[in-house]
Each structure stands twice: as C-alpha cells, then as structure tokens.
Amino acid sequence: MKKYSRREAAKAVFYASAAGILLPSLLSFKTMSMQHRKIPSSGELLPLVGLGTWQTFDVGTNRAEREQLTDVLRKMKEHGGKLIDSSPMYGSSEAVVGDLTSGAGIAQDFFYATKVWTNGRQAGIDQMKNSMKKMKRSTMDLMQIHNLVDWKTHSKTLRDWKQKGLIRYWGITHYTDSSHESLARIIRSEKPDFVQFNYSINSRHAEKNLLETARKNGTAVIINRPYSGGSLFRKVKGKSLPEWCKEYDINSWGQFFLKYLISHEAVNCVIPGTSKPHHLVDNMMAGHGKLPDENTRRKMVDFFEKV
Prior knowledge:
By secondary structure, the protein is α/β, with parallel strands linked by helices. The chain has 11 helices and 10 strands.
C-alpha cells in the first residue's frame, strides 16, 4: 500500500468527507454506520469509538481552541461517535465539554462519562455534583471511580445514585498493567457496569485475564491509552501499511491500532483523545467497516512487532 502518514491519511478522510467526495477506499464507509456493541448490564448499544478528554480539552476559555474542539465534537456526532470521557483530574475539561456541547446544540447526542477522584464519602458526593454541574448534566450516563481512589466508599454511593436515577451506570478505572489484577478482583466481587483500563497493540497485558474476566462477569469495557501515549505512531513513522489491511477497511495506522482493540469481543468502546478534527474523523472511521478476525489479529501483532 502507498505510504501515508497519520496526518496525510486523516486529512484525506476529513477533507473528502467535508466536500462530499467519495474516495474509492472510503466508499464502503459511506454506506455503513458506526458499529456498536451491547452494554452487558442493560443491552443498550454503544458505538465502538468514543473520545477521551485528558489534556486535549483542558483549554480553559481560549476561544480559538474552543472553536476547534467544537468542530471535533460536531465531527464526532456526524461520524457516529457517542461516548465522551472526562474527569475532575483533567483541569477544565469537564466544563469545556459541557459548554461546547450545550453551545453547539448537540448536548443530547452524547453518552457522558466522568469520574470521582477524591477520598471520603461527602467529598466524593460534592465532587460528583460539581462535575455534573460543569458538564451540564442532570443525570450522568456513567460515573467511574478514578484509579480506584477510595473505591469501597464511592462504590456504595454510586450504587445508591444509580438506584435514585442520578447516574445510569457506574464503573471503575485505572491506566497501568499493575492495576489489572485489582480491577479483576473488583469486577468479580462488585459487578460494576463498566471498567476502564489501558490496552494497546504493544501493551497487551489485559489479554492475560482482565478482558475475559470483564466478559464473563457482564462488565462493559472502555479502553484508554490505545496509542500508548503516541509511541505507536513514532514506531511506524514512514512505514507502509500491509496490503491486506484493505480487506479490513484499514486506511491509516490509527485505524490499524484501534481496529485491533475493538475487534476483541469484550471491548465496548475505545477512547483516543484528540483536539484535531481530521484526527477525530480518522479515529471514528475505525468503527466503520469490517473488523479483523482472530487470525488477522495475530497477524497484526506479528507485523507490528517486526516493523
């Protein structure tokens, strides 16, 4: 296949889409919607690709950056994405999400997820209420316990809030391999609706046990750090995609990395972060078209490791 950098491939998708042009390699995407997977605890369908807001949405009141992020959110809606993940840890991100979705008139088009990140019952309640105010939500779709901070205390509050209708789902999160066994134990004992953790094609520790534990216990999975902090792109810079990627509607390295993750049956949504509209579109397109089967997943790992 022809060599395209992530920037070149993403911009080709973005500008062709904006102009209403059907690139031959993208033709199949235009006749398909984003693929979905069921949330086990409810059966609700959730699109496979969402959006993380760590760093990228922490822009405060900067007008130019807010305008660009509004375009990101509009493009996300247009291409079938739904889940937006944030946290009080992420600076102004929660408020920026709330302001921009409300200001653009698209506030009801997303699935909102944020986190509680503090110690103590009342401190957690106060923080969660503040997050809901910032994100302009009367009901939060998903409230997660960030990095398992005081999880035993907050899980009781979240169960109560779910019963009262203040939140629709509750979950737990972390971002390191060393946390995976703790996450698995909590899934088995507490049965949260969601778990969020790190997973990428070059960091596959979750495949040892955690993904299967979530699947067996009916816990939906959100994947963070899908690009390993950007290191995946540095490894493949200047490298060509293998020819067989065409069969799986993979048109960029970003889609290669994301399709590897969402093709795992236990994964409900992957949340790459970006502040760039053309990267957002490229990410969303990973949720369209054919997904790799198990044999192809192994071939993807083998190819990547030899690059």
